[in-house]
Amino acid sequence: MAESPRILFYFLHLLGVGHVFRAKRLIEGFHNAGMKTDVIYGGAPVPGVSFQADSVHYLPPIRAADSAYSNYLDANDEPLEKPFLERRKQSLLEVFETLSPDLILIEAFPFGRRIVRHELGALFDQAATREKKPLIVTSVRDILQERKKPGRNEETRDWITNAFDHVLVHSDPDIIRLDDTFPFAREIDNKLSYTGFVLPNKEPDQNEVETFDVIVSAGGGAFGGELMQTALAVANERVDMSWCLTTGPNLPDNERELLASCAVKHIAVRTSLKNLSGHMGKARLSISQCGYNTAMDVLAAHRDSRCRAIFVPYDTTGQTEQLKRSELLEKAGYSINLPQSTLTTENLNSAIDKALALPRSSHEVDFDGVENSAKLIRSWLDKT
After folding, report:
1. Which of 22, 31, 256, 363 has the maximum number of C-beta atoms within 10 A of its C-beta?
2. 304 lies in which domain range?
3. pTM for the structure as a whole
């Protein structure tokens, strides 16, 4: 294999942006390992986010219309139609013709992103015609959304069996295994490689980081209104601790303004906190939803400080990913699980007392997901 292997990394986000930040970290890891990366990005650009890639190519973006992922929209907020999807597929194939990857890395599919299966099938068919066929690899997080429609898990297994050479699982298998949420994991076990968790970028320690006893966060904030309102009610009762409610940029302005107007002096309301993990490291307690990136920040804070955690997983509209992750992390001793469907001021008060009493877990979490992913990919390419 040449000294600088080339990776084609295809990814997109349909609703939450956690996938984008995880991809960004992986690209940095590939660069640091001496590999080149060409990005094909199929979602709407995220403001302020750039990639340490050798080239970036944008497809006509698509997004989920709602948290149920039952409908999808184009850049004009119009329902996806076959002509649009055909144009998008052709754009993907035209870009691929200009690239010469040694390996194609696909984020999430076929474990998710079913909406793009036709364009990816065409990409794999075109890759198979190359004189030197690139390896095909998928990259998947720790927890999968539950598949309720009959046959979908079998379809995923068949895609892996027939189209993919390897599967990168961004998890520590001592805490969360793919078997926990994918019933056919054992049938594709020969293709699975656990990388450890992919941590968000660690910001340098800053003396000016404010200190709060409790950090409440809701990711982007689109579905965090109920958590913020309940936390505010509890914060108004628990005046012995200082609180920061971090709403995220997508909480409606009127809801954020109402929170701020009801907060008293020991409660701060912020849209975001720069260096959130740094703030968690100085806090006694984190209360948050349980998306992948947030969970990684919380686990790192648990390891490095006295900060303990309550997860309030988003478990409405049929969403199971956050709930399952929160259940498994509670079972492993890292946190208290309080599903949003059971969120009340009484239950949150009880969870706070339990979380503050949690001991430090003795398990050493594998946080080397970025470095291990690069090493695995390089080892596979060195064998070709």
Report:
1. 22
2. 214-356
3. 0.91
